[in-house]
Input
Amino acid sequence: MNAPWRRALLTMRCLRRDAVDLWQEVSGAVALEYGLIAALIIVAILGSIIELGDTLLALPLQLLADAMS
Output
């Protein structure tokens, strides 16, 4: 029969192993970093579209689009 101290020792070892595994888990951090990179790319794309919007509307292609409609 298991003595109470053995069960407590096994429980402590399992808890320690779980804590170490949780501490070494990095997949959530990597996903967060990829999300931040994607957000920065989206902000850069939107900023360039906003800045170039008036310039793109002034292109001769706008005349063609107006003629078609």
About this structure: The chain has one domain: 4-68.
